[in-house]
Amino acid sequence: MVQDHGMAEDITQEVFITVYRSVLSFNSQSSISTWIYRITVNKCLDHLRAQKRQKQNGFFRSLFNTDAAQTDKPHFEHPGVLLERRENARYLFEAIETLPGNQKTVFILAHVEELPQKEVAAIMDISVKAVESLLQRAKVNLRKKLSHIYERRKNE
Predict the structure, then answer these.
(1) What is the pLDDT of residues 95-148, one digit of tens each?
(2) CB proximity list for 103: less than 8 A, separation 6 or greater
(3) d(CA 44, CA 102)
(4) Looking at the whole model, is its pTM more than 0.70?
(5) Which end of the chain is more exposed for a tag (fewer CB within 10 A), N or C?
(6) Handedness of CA 58, 49, 15, 96 (dihedral sign)
(7) Rounded to an integer, what distance in angstroms lies between the CA atom of residue 36 and that of residue 132?
(8) CATH of the domain at 134
(9) Nearest Cα to Cα of residue 47 among 93, 10, 94
(10) Sign of CA dihedral 116, 81, 102, 147
């Protein structure tokens, strides 16, 4: 979700610290894996919100300081994606990155992490119907965003 390998490792450590500190408050209403996924998604979303704030602050700082560091995300290809060509993976993840927040989260959990829709619903605290709807909208948006690539390749 964060598309930065180092940051993903840091978040993973934060997740396990949170799990360790909160294990006694786990109430067994869901499976332990769903609980851990929910913590992970929340940590990732917290990081993305903080990163967005940093980018906004960086923009304002750059207006007044010409030496301000660039705050662009580094290029990242998810290590779990086994596509024949790296270029396709890069286009796919760039397109996923442009999806609205809930669509992106649902798509990653359902298609990249390959979790069942029922578990995605539990992680996100939404209904299975809402997951289905978000997945459908994400797929439509991704088709639109990626269609130009396929059209260009047909013409080559």
Answers:
(1) 888 899 899 999 989 988 889 999 999 999 999 999 999 999 999 999 988 887
(2) 134, 135, 137, 138, 141
(3) 12
(4) no
(5) C
(6) negative
(7) 22
(8) 1.10.10.10
(9) 10
(10) negative
Q: Kindly state whether residues 31 and 41 are assigned to the same domain.
A: yes
CA 3 to CA 76: how far, in whole Å?
6
Do 91 and 122 fall into the same domain? yes
Task: Quote the CA–CA distance of 150 and 90 in Å, as a whole number.
Answer: 14
SS (H, E, C) the chain: CCCCHHHHHHHHHHHHHHHHHHHHHCCCCCCHHHHHHHHHHHHHHHHHHHHHHHHHHHHHHHHHCCCCCCCCCCCCCCCCCCCCCHHHHHHHHHHHHCCCHHHHHHHHHHHHCCCCHHHHHHHHCCCHHHHHHHHHHHHHHHHHHHHHHHHHHHHC
Q: Tell me how far apart the alpha carbons of residues 115 and 40 are, in angstroms, rounded to a whole number.
A: 14
The range of the structural domain enclosing residue 106 comes to: 77-156
Look at residues 32, 58, 75 and tell me which one is the last residue of a structural domain.
75
